[in-house]
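CHAIN AND CONFORMATION:
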Amino acid sequence: MSQKIKVGIVGGTGYTGVELLRLLALHPNVQLHAITSRKEEGMKVAEMFPNLRGKVDLAFSTPENAALTECDVVFFATPHGVAMAQAQELLDAGVKVIDLAADFRLQDTAVFEKWYKMPHGCPDILKQSTYGLVEINREKIAQSKVIGNPGCYPTTVILGLAPVLEKRLVEIDHIVADCKSGVSGAGRKAEVGTLFSEASDNFKAYGVSGHRHHPEISEQLSKLAGAEVGLLFVPHLVPMIRGMLSTIYVKIKPDALATDFQKLYEERYANEQFIDVMPAGSLPETRSVRASNQLRIALHRPGNGDTLVIVVVQDNLVKGAAGQAVQNMNVLFGLAENTGLNHVAVLP
C-alpha cells in the first residue's frame, strides 16, 4: 500500500491513547492527522508524553477543529458513549471507526444499557459492527466499517478457550476465569484505589458480584460454543503498571479425555503470529509480553485428570487494547497484520 492511511485519534490523553500513538508513530503506512482533547487543546502531544518527543509533532485539538472527516480511520480511545455519538457523521464521510471502548462490543442493547448505564445511541450502526478479535473474526473484520475493539480481559479468556469450545471438548456450564491486571487497566485518571499508596504492595479482587466484561466474554464464548455458557469471572488488581494473566479452568468432557490438547492448540494457532502456544508445562510470565502485541498460552492438566488449566498472558495496553486496534486497522486496509506491530517484549 503506497498511500498513507490518514489516522485520527479521539481522546488521546489516556494510556490506550498514548499506546496508539507509540505504535502508529512508527507505522510505515500511517499518517497521523489529528488527535483530540478538549481540555488539552493546543498542547503538543510530546509535551504530555515525552516518550513521543521527536516522533509525534501533533498538538491536541478539539473534535470540532480536528477535521476527523478527512481521515481514513478514526480510533476512539474515549470513555464509553463517545464513539456512538460521533460514528454516524464519520461513516457518512466514508471514515472507518475503531472504538476501544464498549460502544460496539455487545450486540444486545439491553445488556449494554444494563451494564453501562446509558442508552445506546446508534443500534442500527451496532448491528453492522464487528467484534474486533482478529483471530476469530478476521474475514468479517476485513469487510467492516465499524469495529468494536475487545476488552482486555475478554481477549485473554476468549482466545484461551476458543480451541476447546470450537471442538466442543469441554463442559460449558461452569467455566472459571480467574484474571489479574496491572493498574494501568483502570485508566489514566485520579482515583483513590489506583494511588501508589493504595495499589502498591497490595493485591485484591474486585467486581466479584459483576463486572462489565462478564457479558462481553459470555456473549463471545456462547457464539464459539454454539450454546449459552456458564461463566464465573473474577478480576483482580495486581501492583504492577501493565500486564495481564488469566488462569482459566474447564472440565473436559468424558469422551474427550484422550484428546491431545497441546497439539490441538498448536494446530489452531499455528498461523497466528501474535499467539504463542508455549511448550507443555510452561508457566508464562507477564514480563514476557510487556509492550508487545504477543499473547502467550500454556496448558496444564493436573494429574492428567479431567480439569484443563489454561494460562494466558498479554500486555493489557497492547494486545489488550491499542495493539489489537492497530491489528484491526491493518486487516481493514489490507495490510500484513504485523505491520507496525513487530515489537519484541521489553525485559527486564
The chain has a mean pLDDT of 96. The chain has two domains: 5-128, 153-316. The chain is about 30% helix and 20% strand.
